[in-house]
């Protein structure tokens, strides 16, 4: 029976590979090889996990091309997910969503510091007793963690309370988390220890290897997380003085042995790099074009990030080599990703994240392990809230009803619901980094950066739609405008006769569907986040944007409330979020109010 199930799953996967990627012989061979190996896959012990999460690592700026060990050990011996996105382009909200499988509007951890975010908000929301390591321990796993967990996890509050859920832990603590040469770690329930004078990446490498040794010596399956600070900007604790003006976030500091590398490498000069014409919306559209001094600094910043990543590359090499020396590698999933992306110069932006552009929300995701196709490129749309459900499925743990995500198709025997959308949301101010961050009003923060958006990829469409708290809108068709320079949202300055069409329908018809989809997703919970079209069409006839664009639904979508904000707030407050109710069809013939 197991062989028959594997063959059935194999047929589905090969068919999917052909549909998504065309008939690629190498891809199909890789799927065949991995699927057949599953028949001899060990089943006596649940699989182990090694999870590596970097801080602020870009995908769109090509940083992964400069990490040969990670590519060789994880990507090339596993699957890369080309369409993997975060739910919030900011450290703490993104990480809490990852560890809970919930959208930020459901965690209500939306910032890096109180009152809207950080470790204290995580605790206040009850997640210290209800997140992934707790669930894994309940399922029989030993869990270990070293590195950055959350922002505002400090030398003063680390014991109020201690983080739950780990057999062993050694956390980076604020205000020293991002100080490459002056880090502070706190092990288990011990007092914090300063490592001033040592490079934080060398420190975490020792700690990670120690926890891996502990895990390998145990009798239970293990989940080891390693979360280095690199390539995040360097933050000197002495610079944290004026919270209103922000803090100085300078280029990351690489290990001495890597400082000579990449001296001639520059930020990719894509079409959206320091463009001649302004782009984007809200405060981004007001940015001045960068002069040569600022451009040169951006290149230096980029080089420093690549140099800092070399320590992470060596860290992964050390851990995977140790696994190879053990008898556990063949039963271990290795997952590599980052909490959010990063931009440097795109749309005239100084270094940073917090935006909804591709550079900030699309991140690396490589997975290697039992039954995972080798050297395969997966095009399914995936997001960080899918990672906890994925780990559950791989570990054989039943899916939780409060997950807003769904399992990622990692192995050929995958069965489950896929989605074509990602919900991206942000509250508060934009964060500006680097020596020239003061170009926005003398502060490292940009105002009115609250927005709700959806990223949608399906057959024949590749779209990003956002509504800002200023009630400005953006719509990009990335199939024709991959660098998001031309906002298609209707304006008085553009002749309607010149407007493009989406799947054969007018912009207004497409926008009515996108806006309604966003109306559902901006406050969705559980399965409604996975299958939002079912909320609108309970009869189950609509599954994709293409389905919804059928002209028989025009009146239904034209009468929907529109997404808007009542005001710009620094956190998630339902009163500021505008309309929440929507109309729903009843067997495609009529509709009534639904809350």
UniProtKB/TrEMBL annotation:
Q: Which residues carry this modification: 3-oxoalanine (Cys)?
A: 91
Q: Which residues form the Sulfatase N-terminal domain?
A: 47-397
Superkingdom of source: Eukaryota
Q: CDD domains in the record, alphabetically?
A: G6S
Name the Gene Ontology biological process terms. Answer: phenol-containing compound metabolic process
Q: Which reaction does it catalyse?
A: an aryl sulfate + H2O = a phenol + sulfate + H(+)
Region forming the signal peptide: 1-16
| Protein name in UniProt | Arylsulfatase
Q: What is the lineage of its organism?
A: Eukaryota, Fungi, Dikarya, Ascomycota, Pezizomycotina
């Amino acid at each position: 029976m197991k062989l028959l199930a594997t063959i059935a799953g194999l047929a589905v996967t090969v068919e999917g590979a052909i549909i998504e990627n065309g008939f690629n012989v190498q891809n199909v061979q890789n799927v065949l090889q991995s699927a057949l190996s599953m028949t001899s896959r060990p089943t006596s012990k649940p699989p182990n996990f090694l999870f590596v999460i970097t801080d602020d690592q870009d995908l769109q700026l090509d940083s992964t091309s400069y990490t040969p060990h990670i590519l060789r050990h994880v990507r090339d011996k596993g699957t890369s997910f080309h369409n993997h996105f975060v739910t919030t382009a900011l450290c703490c909200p993104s990480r809490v969503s990852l560890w809970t499988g919930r959208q930020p509007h459901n965690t209500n951890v939306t910032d890096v510091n109180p009152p809207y975010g950080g470790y204290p908000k995580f605790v206040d929301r009850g997640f210290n007793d209800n997140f992934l390591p707790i669930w894994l321990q309940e399922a029989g796993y030993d869990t270990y963690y070293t590195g950055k967990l959350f922002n505002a996890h400090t030398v003063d509050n680390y014991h109020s309370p201690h983080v739950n859920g780990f057999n062993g832990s050694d956390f980076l603590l604020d205000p020293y988390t991002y100080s490459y040469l002056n880090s502070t770690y706190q092990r288990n329930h011990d007092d914090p220890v300063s490592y001033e004078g040592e490079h934080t990446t060398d420190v975490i490498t020792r700690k990670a290897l120690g926890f891996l040794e502990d895990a390998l010596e145990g009798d239970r399956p293990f989940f080891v997380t390693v979360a280095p600070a690199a390539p995040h900007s360097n933050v000197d604790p002495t610079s944290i003085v004026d919270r209103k003006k922000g803090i100085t976030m300078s280029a990351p500091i690489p290990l001495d042995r890597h400082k000579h590398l990449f001296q001639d490498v520059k930020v990719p000069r894509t079409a959206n790099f320091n463009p001649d014409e302004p782009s984007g919306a809200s405060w981004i559209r007001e940015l001045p074009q960068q002069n040569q001094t600022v451009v040169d600094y951006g290149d230096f910043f980029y080089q420093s990030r690549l140099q800092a990543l070399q320590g992470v590359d060596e860290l992964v090499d050390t851990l995977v080599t140790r696994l190879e020396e053990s008898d556990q590698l063949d039963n271990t999933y290795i997952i590599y990703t980052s909490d959010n992306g990063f931009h440097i110069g795109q749309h005239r932006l100084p270094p940073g994240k917090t935006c909804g552009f591709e550079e900030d929300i699309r991140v690396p995701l490589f997975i290697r392990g039992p039954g995972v196709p080798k050297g395969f490129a997966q095009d399914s749309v995936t997001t960080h809230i899918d990672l906890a459900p994925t780990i559950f499925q791989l570990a054989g743990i039943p899916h939780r009803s409060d997950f807003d995500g769904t399992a990622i198709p990692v192995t050929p025997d995958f069965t489950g619901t896929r989605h074509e959308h990602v919900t991206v949301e942000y509250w508060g101010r934009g964060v500006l980094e680097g020596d020239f961050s003061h170009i926005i009003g003398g502060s490292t923060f940009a105002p009115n950066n609250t927005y709700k958006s959806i990223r949608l990829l399906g057959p024949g469409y590749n779209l990003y739609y956002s509504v800002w708290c200023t009630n400005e809108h953006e719509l990009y068709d990335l199939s024709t405008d991959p660098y998001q320079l031309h906002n298609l949202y209707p304006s008085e300055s553009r002749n309607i006769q010149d407007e493009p069409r989406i799947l054969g329908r007018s912009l207004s018809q497409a926008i009515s569907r996108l806006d309604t989809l966003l109306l559902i997703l901006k406050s969705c919970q559980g399965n409604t986040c996975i299958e939002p079209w079912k909320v609108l069409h309970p009869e189950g006839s609509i599954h994709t944007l293409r389905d919804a664009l059928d002209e028989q639904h025009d009146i239904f979508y034209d009468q929907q409330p529109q997404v808007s904000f009542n005001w710009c707030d620094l956190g998630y407050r339902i009163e500021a979020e505008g309309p929440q109710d929507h109309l729903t069809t009843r067997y495609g013939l009529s509709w009534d109010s639904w809350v």
